Amino acid sequence: MLGIVRQKMLGQSLLKIRPAISVLRSYSSAAKQMTVREALNSALDEEMSADPKVFLMGEEVGEYQGAYKISKGLLEKYGPERVLDTPITEAGFAGIGVGAAYYGLKPVVEFMTFNFSMQAIDHIINSAAKSNYMSAGQMSVPIVFRGPNGAAAGVGAQHSQCYASWYASCPGLKVLSPYSSEDARGLLKAAIRDPDPVVFLENELLYGESFPVSDEVLDSSFCLPIGKAKIERKGKDVTITAFSKMVGYALKAAEILEKEGIDAEVINLRSIRPLDRSTINASVRKTNRLITVEEGFPQHGVGAEICASVVEESFAYLDAPVERIAGADVPMPYAANLERMAVPQVEDIVRAAKRACYRAVPLAAAA
Amino acid sequence: MVLGRAFEDKCAQMYYYRKMFGFVRLYNGQEAVSTGFIKLLKQQDSIACTYRDHVQALSEGIPARAILSELLDKATSCCRGQGGSMHIFSREHNMLGGFAFIGEGIPIGTGAAFTSKYKREVLKEADCDHVTLAFFGDGTCNNGQFYECLNMAALWKFPFVFVVENNLWAILFLRFIRKDQLSGCWVFMWMGWMY
């Protein structure tokens, strides 16, 4: 009897250790914990320090230390010529950023949320994205548009939209969406160094979340390649693609699925444009099943593009219809219970994965 | 000026002969404005315009052959046929385009003026005194971006000139200066003085 109790305790403690194993593995190099906010702040700080042409512009970025404190301490360190508090004129200051980028400066334009980028979308698309092509390569636009994207908590329909698919459909733009602190640091640095316009979609609810970071990530020359997805969790039964906050949900779903005998592979897209089609397709060719997860509206979304890519390149490998999980096709409601229903939850991902593995009642019968 | 007029007349002729198509906006009658301004600029100064940009491009020194080739879809033109009539760009001549949305060029030009100030004050290039001009029409003065940039250029003191070419047209709407509209006219002129 004592042996069984000991076995149970050992089993439980093993289960407790497993989720934290990434911390244990890097324990020897003393892994630090870093919030996404700190990651973005340190990336901005290091890039501004390394290159005097980099400057930050946006509402509340200076004296208020940033609407979400991402630019904390930067005004003090670099002065008001390089950290500019703008009036509430998105179209104006986005255009000023593009004009400055034409002349080789490297603006980082902050939108308080990407919902406000719609005031400036003419400059993001028509001046920034298309100029290199229209000028036959004469005008390069090394600008970064960054800010929180997607739903927050109870901010209503006009403050909650995800713009990943809108910007990702435009040639001439690069669109990045980090999940962890490592992603935030590496991708923001890559975006600032990139000679093309980059739309950098953060997430307000991730700013305060802490992730372990290795010494390599903390190095000031750390950079992640644009256009490369990361396999957060290897698996063999079903592929789940996600970006930004949904990566965390997909990982939680994968843990639940594991208990039911489904080994899910979770891909963190990191780069929405260019999309890492080869990593996604290689994964689908291995698992034969695909679920795409995103927070934004379903029609013409990121998932639609991934599904099309897989159907075009890996159709013969699919054992089940591809499924896309997206936000509800409705402007984001305000009430907390309605908001919860309008955004994908972990249970939705679990149900879809089981459907793809033919482990539950099929969609048609459920409807 | 004469070259500008001859060029635009030739464009009209090519258009009617169906050698040129799509959007082509001509500058006949307005040549004096941009020619006069641009003559006073230095090589490093820059300009931004609306879609009515042929003559500004000529005044900046872009060869007429390069611009006409662009309008006739030649790969040997200034933008390899990728920009067209409305999007004449030249890095060499500091011509920042050519923008379809009126008012779009104003923030771009303001950004170029910002760069001039930034280079002087932050990058310590003491001899940088580049000026930027934005050319646009009276119709553009209805656009929000015009006022946004007036505010920011004054706030941050940019070396920037807003050139309003009052040709009395706003796209296809002709504004007659009648007695009953005089008050509107004065308001506009007063705002011009204000800024």
TrEMBL record, chain A:
Where is this protein found?
Answer: Mitochondrion matrix
Q: Which SMART domains did the record assign? A: Transket_pyr
Entry's Gene Ontology cellular component terms: mitochondrial matrix
Question: Which keywords are on file for this protein?
Answer: Metal-binding, Mitochondrion, Oxidoreductase, Potassium, Pyruvate, Thiamine pyrophosphate, Transit peptide
Q: Which InterPro entries match?
A: PDHB_mito-type, THDP-binding, Transketo_C/PFOR_II, Transketolase-like_Pyr-bd, Transketolase_C
Query: Transketolase-like pyrimidine-binding domain: which residues?
Result: 34-209
One GO molecular-function entry: metal ion binding
Pfam families this protein is in?
Answer: Transket_pyr, Transketolase_C
Q: Which cofactor does it need?
A: thiamine diphosphate
**Does the record carry Kinase as a key word?**
no
What's an example Gene Ontology biological process for this entry?
pyruvate decarboxylation to acetyl-CoA
EC annotation from Swiss-Prot or TrEMBL = 1.2.4.1
Which EC class does it fall in? oxidoreductase
Q: Tell me which CDD domains the record gives.
A: TPP_PYR_E1-PDHc-beta_like
- Does the keyword field hold Ribonucleoprotein? no
Domain of life of the native organism: Eukaryota
- Say where the protein is mainly found: mitochondrion
Q: Which reaction does it catalyse?
A: N(6)-[(R)-lipoyl]-L-lysyl-[protein] + pyruvate + H(+) = N(6)-[(R)-S(8)-acetyldihydrolipoyl]-L-lysyl-[protein] + CO2
Q: Which PANTHER family match?
A: DEHYDROGENASE RELATED, PYRUVATE DEHYDROGENASE E1 COMPONENT SUBUNIT BETA-1, MITOCHONDRIAL
Its biological function?
Answer: The pyruvate dehydrogenase complex catalyzes the overall conversion of pyruvate to acetyl-CoA and CO2. The pyruvate dehydrogenase complex catalyzes the overall conversion of pyruvate to acetyl-CoA and CO(2). It contains multiple copies of three enzymatic components: pyruvate dehydrogenase (E1), dihydrolipoamide acetyltransferase (E2) and lipoamide dehydrogenase (E3).
- Quaternary context: Tetramer of 2 alpha and 2 beta subunits.
Report the NCBIfam families cross-referenced here. Answer: PRK09212.1 (NF006667), PRK11892.1 (NF008854)
This chain's protein is named Pyruvate dehydrogenase E1 component subunit beta
User: To which species is this protein native?
Assistant: Gossypium raimondii
Taxon lineage: Eukaryota, Viridiplantae, Streptophyta, Embryophyta, Tracheophyta
UniProtKB/TrEMBL annotation, chain B:
Q: Which SUPFAM superfamilies match?
A: Thiamin diphosphate-binding fold (THDP-binding)
| Keyword vocabulary terms for this entry | Oxidoreductase, Thiamine pyrophosphate
Organism (species): Gossypium darwinii (Darwin's cotton)
Tell me the first and last residues of the signal peptide: none
Record keyword RNA-binding present: no
What is the name of the protein in this document?
Dehydrogenase E1 component domain-containing protein
Which cofactors does this gene product need?
A: thiamine diphosphate
Question: Biological process (GO) annotations?
Answer: pyruvate decarboxylation to acetyl-CoA
The Dehydrogenase E1 component domain covers which part of the protein?
A: 1-171
| An annotated Gene Ontology molecular function | pyruvate dehydrogenase (acetyl-transferring) activity
Q: Which Pfam families match?
A: E1_dh
